[in-house]
Structures are given as structure tokens and as C-alpha cells.
UniProtKB/TrEMBL annotation, chain A:
UniProt keyword list: Aminotransferase, Pyridoxal phosphate, Transferase
Species, as recorded: Hibiscus syriacus (Rose of Sharon)
GO molecular function, one term: transaminase activity
Cofactor(s) required for function per UniProt: pyridoxal 5'-phosphate
Keyword Manganese: no
NCBIfam families in the cross-refs: DAPAT_plant
Pfam family membership, one: Aminotran_1_2
Phylogenetic lineage: Eukaryota, Viridiplantae, Streptophyta, Embryophyta, Tracheophyta
Annotated Aminotransferase class I/classII large domain residues: 72-422
The protein's name in its UniProt record: LL-diaminopimelate aminotransferase
Annotated family: Belongs to the class-I pyridoxal-phosphate-dependent aminotransferase family. LL-diaminopimelate aminotransferase subfamily.
UniProt record, GO biological process: systemic acquired resistance, salicylic acid mediated signaling pathway
PANTHER family to which the protein is assigned, alphabetical: AMINOTRANSFERASE (PTHR43144)
Length: 450, 462
């Protein structure tokens, strides 16, 4: 992990970050340790308030391990998959690698948009009934990367809305590209971003009647971090809202294979969506490809900018210029994932994580806490009313050596919540549940208001 | 701008960086779209004009920066022309010396490591999820010791990427839209194109074939392919590739010392592209950091693509020294790290295992063999064009041969060569206005193909 040598822990984010920045400047001028260039720092990067959320969580884990070297730390923080990839899939990747040493099997540059067989397989597996073509599927090295490529595509002059709470890459990439305006300490929000609040009070779906128009709407379902999967009715409302406003939805379906009920798995199940939506997705949580790096983005041909120019052309240009395709070995693995045997093997791993989620949900529910999610997504979203999530995070870490993620890392709407991810070995999840029960049963923790 | 140049009819050649699907437009659509269409060859229409007028449009404006781009990215356009040519001559034995795509198999020692890592992912002990976004420690360490051993570049100055092309764009994201940049002219198109996309440039000026706001540093035979720095306007960023794609020129120690001094005097940042360093035959610096003082003014990008045939495997690295500071003293590496953590999620772990194997003694030796093979190809091509009486440049320190066709349009020469010999090259103007009148011939190919291509060149130009 990159070491932030200038600062220790960042407990309260904002003011500490400013201090950190100033200390860098002061240190460097004082020590005369380096000449500065005359290149101005990108003001957009200055607007970022903290580190990206997940490296920050990693850092805290490392610090905790330094403090308690013998602690058996259990990570239910970063949504990092833990279970081995099914053999059929890794075998296909190994075979592909071996073949690269042969004249017949060697491949150089692949199509930037992805291997055609893989694009076809993705279209057939996930979009069969909604008539998405293989030519509308762009293979990526993961949705985090494509989110930024989409921002490059859209440019700095568009406005965005996000769910609040949401996966931090939408907001951070928006700030980086220059769409977001200044951070407002008072609200914990960026000036130009529309935060669509989600909570139990609105069934974790924004009230679109009071949502102002933005050019782009980032919408993740099943949701990270809340775990809520939008219903067909809700998504129809969203698509209609986008159509009425001429907006583009960027629909993140990374967790669609975790859906237990009949919630839509793709935005394109909704009539009219092809003209207003882009869908991003990933093999990370589907196939344990968090390190292998593979995902895809669907840009329908029908999606047009205001002047009538097809968005797919510009996305293709970005993909050809700023990217050079996902690793061919990873793509070979992806293709194996989508074979009948591969898919079946992966389902077993997904079910394993879902069982983990169930155990965690039951644990929190039995403690009388308000717990959400965990049914259609591998995240459990627990409410600690009246609390500050970083404090809860710290308390849990100190007292049970369990890493979680504080809800405020996902936006101001997450302030009183903790996200617990369900990726982990079963024994560890059970152990974690036991530790949490001990901590959170009556009287043991200041955060339990029951 | 030419729409068609953004798209290609599809060809299923996994070794070419082709194409999009058969979405195409005919000129009858011009009335309903806001941009001018150049003459387009493909006439297939997916909707009739009636439908097009009633097709739903969002209210999201197209990114004006992307609209500035004149055509598709260069190499997909070359691939498209190749595909069209194949349709015209289905039985032609087309030889590709265009896109710099490696052709020789990857040495066993490297692929075995990747296969082993793949197998490992199916085991409890061997499974790994998210890796460090900056790259696996062992690989970063090996890169530092292999390439920067005595140059004071440390492991944590190195960021592993999925290729230099991707990091070029990530660097642009770090720099933002309010910086100015200089490029060599001619140069690898990703520098200019990513700059346009980022919003650093003005409009394309057709009369000079340049984007406003970019400083184009002419590199021609007259100046030994090194810019006359006394005539170069200050910019924030200077992209500099050596050994150079497309000219093959390698800057000397003296020249790079002047470049570093120029950057120091101007407070500029050099982005030094060293992707072809191992092709160096002469005794020129392989890393910018061989020049004293470079750590305070330079970033270096590099790639496994042309060393290990990793063009499809996707692996590279970028060095951002701790000493490199923005004008307010803020370390560039810190911002680059933030981008790497937010806009990227690390290179493929299997590719990284391959990279580590590349840097083992056996791996390094194997890579040198493959590089030697391509260098021999280059020699053959250089000799061929020399024997035909052409002025030939490059080929000594890079796998590219830069052939002069005085007073001719390079796209015309490209087309003529393609039409008459079924050989794909790359027109020099695709790399910038000073590339006009040149053709880039790449030396990646099976030996028999390179020999056959040279036979055909001799036939055409005897």
C-alpha cells in the first residue's frame, strides 16, 4: 500500500486533510528538499476531501495490526472476494497463458472493445431477452475503470446525480473530471452534485418528484452499500424520469447475480431504457475476478446526445484512445465463466457469499438492530441511530478486531450506518458474528440504542 | 470530422486492433446531426432518415472536446483500411507491418508463471482478490532493481499499469485541463489525442494540421530528430518518447541533458516514454533518470508490450519520483496515486505474475532473444529500403523504420503500398504534420513475412 508518510490516521477527514496538505507544503519548502516545477496542481484534485475510501480502510487495518500484532483481524470491510475461482475457469486461463507460447496460440493486441466471442457470450448470457447486441458490449478491466472512462467521455460540463449513499467512485471521478464544484463542509456534499437520499423512509429509492434534473444519473442496483435492489416499478419510474428529463442513467449492475427475488437484473429489462441508459457491470463479485480484472459496459446504439450523435461512437473513441483492452488471459477466463459449467460453479460461490450475508443479517436482527440489505446483495447495512459511523467503525475495530466500512464513506446519507460485507470464509463470518453479538448485546456498546 | 473513421466494419482478427460493429451512416443523415461528415465510403444505413428524425435524443450535450478529434484513433483506422482491403482482395496474403503488434510467442518461462498463477487462483493458499492498486510489491521491487538499480528510483516510486497507453490518459487526468503540453512532431498519437479529450487544446487547425494550444516540436532529418529547444515555447508538460515511435530516433545523453535543463529552466514536467528502451543498440540513456536532476522534472512510462510480447496481456509501469512537485510543493506522486486508486484497480494479477517472471534472469534473457529477433527484422527492412535508394531513418534503436517519400502524401503512399503489395504500413501524417512524406514500417512480424514483404517492396520500387 502506498504509504502516506505525512499523516497518521484521518479520524475526522476534512480539517485533518487540510492540515496534511499544508504540512506537505511547509515541509518541502522548509527542508528545501525539492525544487518545485511551475506546473500548477489540478484544482479538481485539490477538491477531493480524503483518500479514496477503500485504501483508507486498508490503512486503518494496517495500523490496527501494528497496534495489535496478535489480533485475529477479520475483514468484512472492502468487498474483496475470498473464495477460490472454480477450477474450470482458472484452467482455461492457464491454458490460454500456455498457448501464448505457441505460434498458433499467440495473440498480440486484441480489439480494444473486447474479444468478440466474449462480447457475444456476455450479450447472450445477460441480455438475451432484451436484445442487446454483442457490438453494444465493451469489455473492460473492471467497472471502476469504466466509470472513469465514462467520465472522460462525458466531460466536465455535465451535471450528475448519485444515490446517497453510493459507491464512492461515482462522486470521486466526478470531482476529478471537474463536474462537481466545491465541497461544502456544512452539508458534506459537493456543490454541483445532486445527492438522491436513500433510506428506510423512502424504501431506499429516491423520491423522483423532488429530484432536480441532472444530465447523468448514477444508479446502482442491487445497491452498494445499502443492498437494496430496485423493483421493476421503481426502475420504470427511473427510466421515465430520465426520458422526461433527457438524462442518461449510468446503471451499475455489478451485483445483479446476487438478486434473490424477481427484481430486474438489467436496466434494459425496462421498456425505453435503451434510449436513456448505459449499463456497467463486472466479473469481480460475480466470479471472484477482483484481482483478475474484467468487466463490461453496455452502450446501446439508440442512446444519443442532444445533437443526435450516438454515445457509442464517442465511447468507442475513448476505449480506443485511453485503453487498450482487458488482458486477453482475463478475457479467456471470462469466457469460461459464461460456459454452462463455469456459470454453475460460480453460482455455488455466489450462494456461499449469500449464505454469509444471511448469517450476518440474522446476527444483527437478533440483536434488535435495524438491518437492511443482505438479501439481494453481499452487503449488510446496519443502522446505529444517532451515531457517527467512523466512531462506530472504530469501536467495532477496537473491541472486536473486525473491519467494516463506515457509512459516511459512501456519502452523508450513510452517516449513521455501517456496511458489513459478506465476503469471507464461512468460519470467519461465523466468528465475526459471535464477536459482534458479544459487543452489541445490551449494555456492552454505546451504539446500541435498544 | 469523419464519422466513419471512428468505426470499422468488423473483422474477426484477434491479432489486429480492429473494429466496431457495422453501425454506419450514410450522408443522408447529415441534416439531423450537428457535425459535418466527410466523404464516407461505407453506405449501409441502420435506420432510414424518417426514423432518424423521430429517434429519441437525450438532452445531454456531447463532450465538445471529443468533438474536436478529427478522425478515429490512428491504429483502428489503419486496421479498418486493412479490413476493407481484405474484403476487396479476399485471397491476398496481406502482411501487416503497420500497427506495432508483436507476433512472436511469449517465452515459456513467462507463460508458465502466468499459468501457475492462474492455477493458484483456484486454491485457498493461492487465491488473491484485490491487489494493491499500485501493483504487487515483488513486481515493483523487481522493476526498481532491474531498470533503475543505481538511479535512486525506489520501489514505491513505481506504479504498475495495464499498459503505457492507459497510463498516458491517467496522467492527463492527473494534470487536468488547465495545463499546456508539448509533443514531438511526429509522435505517438495517444499524447495528442488524450490531451484533446482532456480539454487542454483548442480546435484543430486544418491549414497546419495541428491542434491549437499544443506545442509541436518538429523532429526531422534536418535537426537530427531532436527539437531545437531554443524555438520551443514553454509548456507545462513535455511528452518525449525515446527511442522514438515513429521515427526510431534515440536521444543522446547530451540531448537529454539539454532537455532536462530546458524543463528545469521552465519549471516543466517531462513525461518520458521509454517503451522501446531495450531496443537501443547505441550507447544512449535508456531511462531519463540517468540524467542528473531528472527526478525533479520527469515522469517515465514504460511497457512490457514490446519487450515480452505483452500487447494483449497488458502490463506496463510508470515512475513518478517523490522529488517531483507541483508549483505549490505538492508531490505529483500523491495525486497520481489518488488517480490510480480511484480510476483504476490494478493490473491483472496473472499479468503481473508474468511480469515478475520477465524480470528473472531467465526471463530477461528470453526477452532479449525476442527483442533481438525483431531487431534483426528491422535490419532487413532498413537494408531493403536503403538498397532501393530511399532515405531511411530509425531502425537502429527501435523496431520502426521511418522511410522518406519526398513530396508525397503519406496516406497516398500507404494506399499505394497496400494496393500494390498488400502490405500494411502506417502513414507518417498520422503521427503529426511533420510525419507527412514519411511512412512508418514496423518490424514486428514472422521472419518469412518480413522477408516476403521486403521482396515485394523491391518489386514495387525497383
Amino acid at each position: 500500500m502506498y504509504k502516506l508518510s505525512a499523516c497518521s490516521s484521518m479520524a475526522c477527514g476534512i480539517s485533518l486533510q487540510t492540515m496534511v496538505l499544508n504540512s506537505w507544503k511547509v515541509r518541502n519548502y522548509k527542508q528545501g528538499s525539492g525544487r518545485c516545477t511551475n506546473v500548477p496542481r489540478n484544482v479538481n484534485l485539490e477538491k477531493l476531501q480524503n483518500n479514496y475510501l477503500f485504501p483508507e480502510i486498508s490503512k486503518r487495518e494496517l495500523q490496527h495490526l501494528e497496534k495489535y500484532p496478535n489480533a485475529k483481524v477479520i475483514s468484512l470491510g472492502i468487498g474483496d472476494t475470498t473464495e477460490p475461482i472454480p477450477e474450470k475457469i482458472s484452467l482455461s486461463m492457464a491454458n490460454y497463458a500456455h498457448a501464448l507460447s505457441t505460434a498458433e496460440g499467440y495473440r498480440g493486441y486484441g480489439a480494444e472493445q473486447g474479444n468478440q466471442a466474449l462480447r457475444k457470450a456476455i450479450a447472450e448470457t445477460f441480455y438475451k431477452d432484451v436484445a442487446i447486441k454483442d457490438t453494444e458490449v465493451f469489455v473492460s478491466d473492471g467497472s471502476q475503470c469504466d466509470i472513469s472512462r465514462l467520465q472522460l467521455l462525458l466531460g466536465s460540463k455535465v451535471t450528475i446525480s448519485v444515490q446517497d449513499p453510493s459507491f464512492p467512485a461515482y462522486i470521486d471521478s466526478s470531482v476529478i473530471i471537474g463536474q462537481a464544484g466545491d465541497f461544502q463542509d456544512k452539508t458534506g456534499k459537493y456543490q454541483n452534485i445532486e445527492y438522491m437520499q436513500l433510506g428506510p423512509q423512502n424504501n431506499f429509492f429516491p423520491d423522483l418528484r423532488i429530484t432536480p434534473r441532472t444530465d447523468i444519473i448514477f444508479f446502482c442496483s442491487p445497491n452498494n452499500p445499502t443492498g437494496h435492489a430496485a423493483t421493476r416499478k421503481q426502475l420504470q419510474q427511473l427510466v421515465d424520469f430520465a426520458r422526461d428529463n433527457g438524462s442518461i442513467i449510468v446503471f451499475d449492475s455489478a451485483y445483479s447475480t446476487y438478486i434473490s427475488d424477481d427484481s430486474p437484473k438489467s436496466i434494459f429489462e425496462i421498456p425505453g431504457a435503451k434510449e436513456v441508459a448505459i449499463e456497467i457491470s463486472s466479473f469481480s463479485k460475480f466470479a471472484g475476478f477482483t484481482g483478475v480484472r474484467l468487466g463490461w459496459t453496455v452502450v446501446p446504439e439508440e442512446l444519443l446526445f442532444s445533437g443526435g450523435f450516438p454515445v457509442i461512437h464517442d465511447f468507442n473513441r475513448i476505449v480506443c484512445t485511453c485503453f487498450n483492452g482487458a488482458s486477453n488471459i482475463a478475457q479467456a477466463g471470462g469466457l469460461a465463466c459464461l460456459s454452462p459449467e463455469g456459470f454453475q460453479a460460480i453460482r455455488a460461490v455466489i450462494d456461499y457469499y449469500k449464505e454469509n450475508a444471511k448469517i450476518l443479517v440474522d446476527t444483527f436482527a437478533s440483536l434488535g438492530l435495524e438491518v437492511y440489505g443482505g438479501v439481494n446483495a453481499p452487503y449488510v447495512w446496519v443502522h446505529f441511530p444517532g451515531s457517527k459511523s467512523w466512531n462506530v467503525f472504530t469501536e467495532i475495530l477496537e473491541k472486536t478486531h473486525i473491519i467494516t466500512v463506515p457509512g459516511s464513506g459512501f456519502g452523508p446519507g450513510g452517516t449513521e450506518y455501517i456496511r458489513i460485507s459478506a465476503f469471507g470464509q464461512r468460519e470467519l463470518v461465523i466468528e465475526a458474528s459471535w464477536r459482534l453479538e458479544k459487543l452489541l448485546s445490551k449494555g456492552k456498546s454505546p451504539f446500541l440504542t435498544v | 470530422m469523419s464519422l466513419m473513421n471512428n468505426l470499422s466494419t468488423s473483422t474477426i482478427s484477434s491479432s489486429s486492433s480492429a473494429f466496431l460493429a457495422p453501425i454506419s451512416f450514410d450522408s443522408s443523415r447529415t441534416q439531423s446531426v450537428a457535425f459535418p461528415l466527410k466523404n464516407i465510403n461505407v453506405v449501409k444505413c441502420i435506420t432510414n432518415p424518417q426514423e432518424q428524425q423521430t429517434a429519441y435524443k437525450t438532452k445531454v450535450s456531447r463532450n465538445a472536446n471529443i468533438a474536436k478529434l478529427q478522425a478515429g484513433y490512428l491504429f483502428p483506422e489503419v486496421a479498418r483500411r486493412r479490413a476493407v482491403h481484405l474484403l476487396k482482395y479476399p485471397n491476398a496474403q496481406v502482411i501487416s507491418l503497420g500497427i506495432g503488434d508483436t507476433t512472436e510467442p511469449i517465452p515459456d518461462v513467462i507463460t508458465s508463471a502466468m499459468a501457475e498463477r492462474s492455477h493458484g487462483l483456484s486454491t485457498l493458499e493461492g487465491y488473491s482478490g484485490y491487489g494493491a492498486e499500485q501493483g504487487e510489491k515483488a513486481l515493483r521491487s523487481a522493476l526498481a532493481s532491474t531498470f533503475y538499480g543505481n538511479l535512486g528510483i525506489e520501489e514505491d516510486d513505481i506504479f504498475v499499469s495495464d499498459g503505457a497507453k492507459c497510463d498516458i490518459s491517467r496522467l492527463q487526468v492527473v494534470f487536468g485541463s488547465n495545463v499546456t503540453m508539448a509533443v514531438q512532431d511526429p509522435s505517438y498519437p495517444a499524447y495528442v489525442d488524450s490531451s484533446v479529450i482532456m480539454g487542454q487544446t483548442g480546435q484543430f487547425q486544418k491549414d497546419v494540421e495541428k491542434f491549437a494550444n499544443i506545442e509541436y516540436m518538429r523532429c526531422t532529418p534536418e535537426n537530427g530528430f531532436f527539437p531545437d529547444l531554443s524555438t520551443v515555447v514553454r509548456t507545462d508538460i513535455i511528452f518525449f518518447c525515446s527511442p522514438n515511435n515513429p521515427t526510431g530516433a534515440a536521444a543522446t545523453r547530451e540531448q537529454l541533458t539539454r532537455l532536462v535543463q530546458f524543463a528545469k529552466d521552465n519549471g516543466s514536467i517531462i513525461v518520458y516514454d521509454s517503451a522501446y528502451a531495450l531496443y537501443m543498440s547505441d550507447d544512449n540513456p535508456r531511462s531519463i533518470f540517468e540524467i542528473p536532476g531528472a527526478k525533479e522534472v520527469a515522469i517515465e512510462t514504460a511497457s512490457f508490450s514490446k519487450y515480452a510480447g505483452f500487447t494483449g496481456v497488458r502490463l506496463g509501469w510508470t515512475v513518478v519520483p517523490k522529488q517531483l512537485l507541483f508549483s505549490d510543493g505538492f508531490p505529483v506522486a500523491k495525486d497520481f496515486n489518488r488517480i490510480v486508486c480511484t480510476c483504476f484497480n490494478g493490473a491483472c494479477n496473472i499479468s503481473q505474475a508474468g511480469g515478475l517472471a520477465c524480470l528473472s534472469p531467465e526471463g530477461l534473457e528470453a526477452m532479449q532473444e525476442v527483442i533481438g529477433f525483431y531487431k534483426e527484422n528491422t535490419k532487413i527492412i532498413v537494408e531493403t529500403f536503403n538498397s532501393l535508394g530511399f532515405k531511411v531513418y530509425g531502425g537502429q534503436n527501435a523496431p520502426y523504420v521511418w522511410v522518406h517519400f519526398p513530396s508525397r502524401s503519406s496516406w497516398d503512399v500507404f494506399s499505394e503500398i497496400l494496393e500494390k503489395t498488400h502490405i500494411v504500413t502506417t502513414p507518417g501524417s498520422g503521427f503529426g504534420p511533420s510525419g507527412e512524406g514519411f511512412i512508418r514500417v514496423s518490424a514486428f512480424g514472422h521472419r518469412e513475412n518480413v522477408l516476403e514483404a521486403c521482396r515485394r517492396f523491391k518489386q514495387l520500387y525497383k
